[in-house]
Amino acid sequence: MTHKEIIKPNLDKLQAKIVDAIIKKAQKLHVDSQVINRRMLVDYLNYTLQINLKEGLHIKQLLEDAYVKASYSSSIQNAIVNNIYDNDGRNKVFNPNRVAQRVTALDIQNPEIDLDDFKLIEHGTQLVKQFDGTSDIQAIQSNIETLKPTKEFSLTGKSKVEAKRKHAFNIKQEYAKIIETHEVVKDINLNLVDDFDKTRNKLKLVREDLLNLLIDLFGDQIKVTEPELFDVSGINWENFEDSYAKLDTFFACIDQNVETFKGSHQQHMADISQSGKNQFNSFMDQTTKLSNKGSLKSQDIKAAAGVAAVGFLIEGGLSIAKSRTEAKKTIAQIDFDIEKLKEGMQGDVQIILDDILKLGYFYSELKDKLIPQLQLFSQVTVNKLTNDIAPLYKQIISNTEIKNLRDSNQNLMTEHRTIQAELADQNEQIELHEQEEEYLKETIRNQQGERSFLMSLQPIEPNPVYKIISPSKSKKLYNHTIENWTAFCKPFIENFKNLQANLVEETKIKEDKITIVEQLTNRQASVEQELKQNSKKIKTVFEQAGNKSVLKDLLTQIRDFTISSKGVLEVNISKELV
Reduced to 3 states, what is the DSSP secondary structure of residue 84? Predict the structure, then answer.
């Protein structure tokens, strides 16, 4: 099976319906102010259209088609771009303002290099320039200094604790905005680096396609006679989006670093109400035992409730009497935690400002050096291909058999690169599924005990004897109890069942993707074999009937281009910035 047959079977017939469904979904996303990921979109399309659309990189093209078709509505176009994200939540699936990855093999007789990519890069540089993260962080810091806790009067101290706690969380909320601001600055800078990388990679693929032409005409021996042309050891580029160092911030471990600030308050609130809960639990325990025996009477309920109420008044009164002292201790602890929070924040701000400065150096080197070099050489490449290489190539493919084999190789190379990109995406999705599987398994393990406990509380109907003795009271009590259990216990149990079902579904989807990876890997090997076979045929045919005088000129032109391209392709961000 080809890549198309594996990933998007029958897609051509369904494309119009899928695009219309995407537009309709985008409209709803806009109205509901909702954001979904790529997988959720695929699930929606499969459910709505009753199809079996597979998830993959082609979803981006479907979104682009929908975006173009929805040109009559800016709100729908915005939703297609801004409300549908990759499954890891980092990037938009389709973004017309970002450079697209290129996989298409070069058509040497009609060479095209999209210089419009540099307009997108210019847009990226303007975004970086416009967003002043340093000023925004300073404004947030100033706002934090103005925050004050509300003044409260409380008999038990509960309201004062709550006010102080709210103040602490307000500071934490502003603190989070500082972290978010840094993330925005980092993202727009790394997006610019990524766009530059994709644009440069297109040049790298042009070079690769020209070298493949030489192999077709000269055979593998050209690698031995012209080793400098095939030396790509210096041509690499860091994936900065994945490898850029994450900052070691206080905020990243804030729940551990300021545990008492959250935990002591919750414990204090629990202490204030625990006496009442103890008496209520005692009351429920007594009535449940009586109910299970089938001997529960109205006076039993009243008696048990009365004892619970008296116990609550006595024990609860003592709790109120001592809670003021406990509240003062809790408030003092929260005050300490607030100072700890601010101290950690100051450290993080300095780390973040240093990183923003480093990103600024990134930006300057890209804008002032690397991007202009790449833009200039891209224009040179277009001229070189059009004026010097394409005319020679047209002479070579004047032989029909050679042309057909070269056209076949062009299509095969495009498919090969598509498979490479698809494999990277599918493997990334498999990793995400494995992470989700582990999360679901852990959640199920953690909730198993509570689920068993709640199941044990499920009311059972009174025994037949009690139904005969007191049919109305037994029925009324059972209905009331089952109603409460359904309201407060059953939702947790239903959610537990959903977790189990989600785990089964997650495993199935992961296994389907593993199968797709195996199919793609097999197809990749087949494509590579076909490329080699075609290459050998081209060499044989050309040796027999080709115009050999053109070979020398072609080799000279490709050598000139390849050697000169190294200067651009081997340049990286300065080591001290990485």
Answer: strand
Mean pLDDT to the nearest integer, 564-572: 80
For residues 489 and 451, give the distance between their C-alpha atoms in angstroms, rounded to a whole number: 9
pLDDT at 242: 64
Beta-sheet pairing, 84-85 with 36-37: parallel
Cα–Cα distances (Å) from 326 to 61, 323, 551, in that order, read 62, 5, 91
Give residue-wise pLDDT tens across range 456-507. Answer: 888 887 665 445 555 566 677 778 888 888 888 899 999 999 999 999 999 9
- CA distance to 54, 88, 345, 481, per residue, from 439 (Å): 24, 15, 30, 34
Going by the DSSP 8-state scheme, the letter that residue 262 receives in this structure is H
Residue bearing tokens 């603190």: 175
**C-beta of residue 212 within 8 angstroms of C-beta of residue 409:** yes
Residue 392 CA to residue 302 CA, distance in Å, equals: 102
| Amino acid identity at 87 | N
End-to-end CA separation in angstroms for the chain: 42
Span 405-409, average pLDDT:
96
SS3 assignment, position 85: strand
What letter represents residue 430's amino acid?
A: I
Q: How far apart are CA 149 and CA 162, in angstroms?
A: 10
What's the token pair of residue 411? 């299509």
Is-contact 271 319, C-beta < 8 A?
yes
Query: Tokens at residue 407, please?
Result: 């056209």
Q: Hunting for tokens 């973040």 — which residue is that?
A: 352
Measured distance CA(190)–CA(193) in Å, rounded:
5
Task: Report which DSSP code applies to 368.
Answer: I
Residue 285 CB contacts under 8 Å (≥ 6 apart), including other chains: none
